[in-house]
Each structure stands twice: as structure tokens, then as C-alpha cells.
Specification:
By secondary structure, this protein is mainly alpha-helical. About 65% of the residues lie in helices and about 0% in strands. It has 14 helices and no strands. It has helices at about 1-15, 25, 30-45, 50-60, 80-95, 105-120, 130-150, 155-165, 170-185, 190-195, 220-225, 230-235, 240-245, 250-265. Helix 5 packs antiparallel against helix 6 (about 105-120). The longest helix is centred in the N-terminal third of the chain and has 20 residues, at about 80-95.
């Protein structure tokens, strides 16, 4: 019974913000212990606001409501990036130990299997974020390029990446957003994504109505500009018409990659 009462009191503190009833044993404590308990409660109320919000969000999910998305819960937090980079460097060290026993095609296949394929996992969520969030991922790509080509650490990395025809991390993020947008327009993406974008339909006949432009909603914050409903039309509307009208997904991938590669390296 005592454990059940304690759990109920803890539930009142975390979710409802109530203070638990004072038991006879607690009433008999000294003033010093009461002050410590009061400071503990106040510190908990001030310092655990993120945990309380998480529990409230969990309660909303159980009721069928979707909690508001915060910058730290966008699916690509700093902790997940650190784990991703740590795993990538672990595989790079292991591949480097057996590199002399592998041929170049097998080495490239292993690197793509364990490293480069993981750089693209969930990277569309990083669109619009600061450079500090993508710097570690770019470091992983640079180390991977040096391992594959055999260049030293002191060598300049830009010519190496250009020879490999690799897109930098920020361009890979844009590539993923554009690919999702293309699939949404042609009905190849899930319905919840297709419902987020709409084609631009002018009220009167205009030339812009024939260029496959997307309607871009207005936002009032930087986080609103990072949402898919705003980011997808912004990037899509800057593409040339021949890329937008690609006949297949593979053709669209090739054209978009060449377009982003030339725009980054000025070729």
C-alpha cells in the first residue's frame, strides 16, 4: 500500500503539478529536512520541465492527439547524430584494418554498406538546421573519401570528393527533400506526405501555371521554414522545368544529382 501511495503521489507531482499530502512521519521531521524537501521539489519543478512536457506529450498520444514538434524532437537530435557518427567511425576503423586484403570494388561496396548509406538515413529532417548539426556528418564523409582513395589527412578534400562525384552533406539533404517532393507529386509517397503539398493553380491563365510550381504557404518563424510543407515548394520551384518533368524516379535522381553537383562545384 505504501508503494502504491508513493506512485500516486509521484504521478500527482509530475503530471498534475500537485504536491503530495504530508504523512505523520513527514510532519515530525525537522525544519532542515523540510527545507531540503522544499528545495528538492522546487528544483525538480524548474529543472525537469522537459520531462514533464514529454509525459504530457505521451498522454496526448494515448488520447489520439499529436503533440507539437519541438526543435529537439524532430527525429535528428544531437544525441542520435553522435551515435550515428560514432558507429560510422567504428566501421571505418575496422574496414581500414582489412583494406590491404580487399580489392577496390569490394572496398567501395563495404564503405557504402556500412557508412555512406547511413549518412542518408533521416537526413531530410536536418533541412534548415545550423551547420553545427551537419559538421560531424561531413567529417564522416571526408574520412570515408580519404579511406576509399588512399589520400592522406593533410590532403585537400574538395578535389577528392569531386572525383568521386559525391554530394556534400547539405546537398544530400536537399536531394532527399526533392526526391520526396517528386514522389508526392506523382502519388508514389504515402498519403500523409502527399497531402502536405499542392500544385500552384493561378486564378487566371499565366505562364507560371504550366511550370509545375508548388503553392508555398507563408510562415512567421524559422522553424516554420524548416517544415516539409514550406521547404519542399521552396526548393522545388527553383528547379529547371526539364528536371521537374522527368519521366521516372531514376531519371529524376540522375538529373537532380547532376544539377546539385554542378551548382556546388561550379562546373
Amino acid at each position: 500500500i505504501r508503494k502504491i501511495d508513493n506512485l500516486t503521489a509521484l504521478n500527482d507531482i509530475i503530471i498534475r503539478g500537485k504536491r503530495p499530502p504530508t504523512s505523520p512521519k513527514v510532519q515530525g521531521t525537522s525544519t532542515t529536512s523540510q527545507a531540503c524537501q522544499h528545495s528538492d521539489y522546487s528544483t525538480r519543478d524548474r529543472g525537469s520541465s522537459g520531462k514533464i512536457d514529454d509525459l504530457k506529450d505521451l498522454n496526448d498520444i494515448q488520447r489520439g492527439k499529436r503533440p507539437p514538434t519541438s526543435p529537439k524532437t524532430r527525429g535528428a537530435s544531437t544525441t542520435s547524430q553522435a551515435r550515428q557518427c560514432k558507429s560510422a567511425f567504428y566501421h571505418l576503423r575496422n574496414i581500414g584494418k582489412i583494406k590491404k586484403y580487399l580489392t577496390q570494388p569490394v572496398l567501395a561496396q563495404l564503405i557504402h554498406m556500412f557508412v555512406t548509406s547511413r549518412l542518408d538515413y533521416g537526413n531530410s529532417l536536418l533541412y534548415g538546421s545550423s551547420a553545427s548539426h551537419t559538421r560531424k556528418l561531413q567529417m564522416v564523409q571526408n574520412v570515408t573519401a580519404r579511406l576509399l582513395t588512399g589520400h592522406r589527412k593533410s590532403d585537400h578534400i574538395t578535389p577528392v570528393v569531386r572525383v568521386l562525384h559525391w554530394l556534400p552533406v547539405d546537398k544530400r539533404i536537399i536531394f532527399k527533400v526533392l526526391l520526396l517532393t517528386y514522389k508526392c507529386i506523382h502519388g508514389l509517397a504515402p498519403k500523409y506526405l502527399c497531402s502536405l503539398i499542392d500544385l500552384y493553380r493561378p486564378s487566371r491563365p499565366l505562364r507560371s501555371g504550366q511550370t509545375m510550381q508548388l503553392a508555398r504557404p507563408t510562415t512567421r518563424s524559422r522553424f516554420g521554414d524548416m517544415a516539409f510543407t514550406t521547404a519542399a515548394p521552396k526548393i522545388w520551384n527553383t528547379l529547371p522545368l526539364d528536371i521537374k518533368t522527368a519521366c521516372s524516379v531514376n531519371s529524376f535522381k540522375c538529373k537532380v544529382k547532376s544539377y546539385l553537383f554542378c551548382s556546388h562545384f561550379n562546373c
